[in-house]
Amino acid sequence: MTDSQSTTALRDKADVVILGAGPAGLVLGNLLQASGVDCVVLERATRAQVQTRSRAGFLAANTVRILDRHGLAEGLRRRGREHATCEFRTEDGRFRLDYGGLGRGERHTVYPQHELVTDLLTRYLDTGGRVRFGTEALTVLDTDGARPTVTVRDADGRTGSWQGRYVAGCDGRHGAARRSLPPGAVRRHHLDHGVSWLGLLAEAPPSLDAVGYAVHHRGFAGHMARTPEATRYYLQYERGAPPDAWSEDRIWDELSLRMRAADYGPLHRGRIVHRAVVDLESDVLEPLRHGALFLVGDAASLLSPSAAKGANLAVLEAEILARALIADLGHGDPEGLARYSARCLEHIWRAQEFSGWMVRLLHGAPGPDGEPGFHDSLRRSRLASLSSSRSSQDWFAEHYVGV
Ligand code: FAD
């Protein structure tokens, strides 16, 4: 490991200080680096941790276009697989949507997020980019001033600071950027969908050649291919229950039941290598700028994973911010920075609307007597319309793949 990757300067400077080496921070870092803008990425975790964190996998066509445009898509072009079908299994039978032939005719590329992050990091370091791993941003100070400062602490507990002209908060929902916003500086919109999922990663080949969404009276179950050897599953789960409350056998039995394996074919079982509980929530900060501090990716907005939009929005916002920073720092044109928040929020609200619709497509609430309730009947009606109406299917396809 080189010096630039392993040590923490106690006091340093860069024109743009980027917090977080996820998809948002690394796309931004690569684009700035390629344009000769002086920047640094500060990352709390180690390099090994960021390169192995298993999360997203479905990349929208627009995300692939952005990465292609900047020469960052080589890995996903080589190892990613196109995907364009989903299958719904319900109490009324099953139906498939070949969304690649509907709407705008766009497809997903399935490419695990940690592989994308590895590609982005490798390219950034190979082109001379600066990253400080094991460096936690504590607070962003003086965001209203000409020289905002990020206080940091390294893995040995040493503290220091980084001064920049701009700070890009790409450090997620619980990062320093959000924490540093003064009270009242931005508005937080928040919606708890009242549902939790147990997200699972199984060392098992996909069990069907489609994204599987199963609606069952015992709760939702989902199936998403990751690689020929790994599959992500979701199980609707009791809110507040610890992720390890269920044995592997119980998980596979429940997945099989809810996905109606007896009718449609068995699931390929395998070792469950990762599990985490996700409470389905949405939130949006507005505006996405406070002085010299910009919010990007999950730091800007959090989406329920129902529609796989988070990483895609992160890449889109990073490109918008990179262009604006390059125009400002390179040509003295602040217009893009002034418009950054409004431009991103337009995309974010559209994605929030679709993700919320997906939550309501996949979950209903039984009535007080345990019988199907009003929302459950609405859910059933939504699915019926999706299975039979071409205009509903076109709308679904456009928003499912689009960002
Ligand atoms: P992150 O990827 O969270 O990166 C933030 C980085 O900041 C991290 O490396 C973190 O260590 C670092 N950091 C945090 N705090 C600090 C600090 N104080 N100082 C320094 N560094 C800090 N999205 C999709 O588009 N498609 C999908 O299929 C999909 N599936 C998902 C499945 C699961 C189970 C989950 C949990 C999420 C999924 N998402 C999906 C969402 C997607 O993973 C996120 O939206 C995406 O990671 C956001 O990227 P980001 O760069 O904004 O944040």
Q: What can you see in these coordinates?
A:
- The chain has 403 residues and is α/β, with parallel strands linked by helices.
- It is 36% helix and 28% strand.
- The chain contains 13 helices and 21 strands.
- The protein has helices at 3-6, 23-34, 47-52, 61-69, 74-79, 113-126, 176-179, 248-258, 261-264, 310-331, 335-362, 374-388, 390-401, and strands at 11-13, 16-19, 39-42, 58-59, 81-83, 86-90, 93-97, 108-110, 130-132, 135-141, 149-154, 159-163, 166-169, 187-203, 211-214, 221-227, 230-237, 271-286, 289-290, 293-295, 301-302.
- An eight-stranded mixed sheet has the order 7-6-15-16-17-14-18-21. A six-stranded mixed sheet has the order 9-3-2-13-20-19.
- α2 runs parallel beside α6, α2 (23-34) packs parallel to α10 and α4 (61-69) packs parallel to α10 (310-331).
- The structure holds flavin-adenine dinucleotide.
